[in-house]
Amino acid sequence: MSQPSPRLAAIVATARTILENHGREGLTMRALAARLGMQAPSLYKHVADKDELEALLIADALREMGTALRASLDGLGPRRPARRTAVAALAKGYRAWALAHPHPYRLATEGTLPRDRLPVGLEAWTAAPLVEVAGDEDRARAIWAFAHGMTILELDGRFPGGADLDAAWDRGVAAFA
Amino acid sequence: MSQPSPRLAAIVATARTILENHGREGLTMRALAARLGMQAPSLYKHVADKDELEALLIADALREMGTALRASLDGLGPRRPARRTAVAALAKGYRAWALAHPHPYRLATEGTLPRDRLPVGLEAWTAAPLVEVAGDEDRARAIWAFAHGMTILELDGRFPGGADLDAAWDRGVAAFA
DNA sequence: GTCTATAGTGGGATAGAC
DNA sequence: GTCTATCCCACTATAGAC
User: Fold this and answer.
1) Which of B136, B158, B166, B170 is the best mutation test for A, with the most CBs of A within 10 A?
2) The dihedral of CA B91, B95, B98, B100: what is its sign?
3) What is the b/e burial string over B63-91, where b = at least 16 CB atoms within 10 angstroms of the residue's CB?
4) Distance in angstroms: CA A35, C1' D13
5) Nearest residue to nucleotide C14 when comparing alpha carbons to its C1'?
6) What's the fold here for domain B58-176?
7) I need a surface site. Which of A13, B57, B146, B170 has the fewest CB within 10 A?
8) Which nucleotides on chain C have any atom < 7 A from a protein Cβ?
9) Residues spanned by CATH 1.10.357.10 within chain B?
10) Model confidence pLDDT, tens digit, residues A83-138
């Protein structure tokens, strides 16, 4: 594992800022270069292509999500919580991270995951807290589908204006407890 | 309500074919015109812009989804089924339609819904079977989120290769029964 | 490692003649 | 309602000089 050059780290950090502020479509090689005070072609000395840059951003997002999920469980204290308590905590942490970082969340969860370009084991590491709490993989997948569905539908403005999304989340958490 | 011209109907039908075969990105005004044996600018005599064309396709998809959901319930016979039975039937019909028409499903469920350009009441009509079966709107939203999450994650290849998705669906259906 | 220049691709949309 | 001609935009990526 070689350390990334500081220059590359700066590029990724700036790309993340643009992603947060302007979404995936706003993240162009030109915009990124301009913000770094360089020309777009120069970026290709640091990154093979745009897909590689996106993969780096996805990896960052997955690491942050995994950290957020673990922090949610840590907040419950040292004793092993009831499953419903744990699922509720994970759901809360999941939703909170996604709403705080909608564009990185989309990048990391929509479309095909570039598994070839991600660190080995990262995807599983991110999901591990949920798998552990759910008890088995089938339930974990169902809970994840519920959480992702609620999140992406909320981000896309799919629920009616007056919808009580807290209540819908509670229904799902209760169902899977 | 004026009837659409037969020409417009043909344009939408051809657009649907391209969408089914090549996805949203494959549906360009040029490709559509070529398939119709005309030039791209001519399309603008029938449609204001590409967004309007997409809205027509979304409306078609919503009508088909609503029809498919109703057919799923009709298949259960004249007697009022138990909720779990009804939810299972809706889930099966929902997933089947989406897998049979992945690109129209994506178009109709991903991103912002152009409500201004859709027939009034269509969105609610599509969702009505689920709302009725669920009993209340919070549960309906939770079930929809689960179904959409399962569907879109499956379409995006997000589950591991060996995942038993039938089992995950069953878990969700059972949870919401 | 940065630059300039530019290739190559693709897209949505309009003007005006017929 | 269709055509031709065309504009404008934006993007990724490469070549070669410095």
Assistant:
1) B158
2) negative
3) ebbbebbbebbeeeeeeeeeeeebbbbbb
4) 19
5) B41
6) Tetracycline Repressor; domain 2 (1.10.357)
7) A13
8) 1-6, 10-16
9) 58-176
10) 999 999 999 999 999 999 999 999 999 999 999 999 999 999 999 999 999 999 99
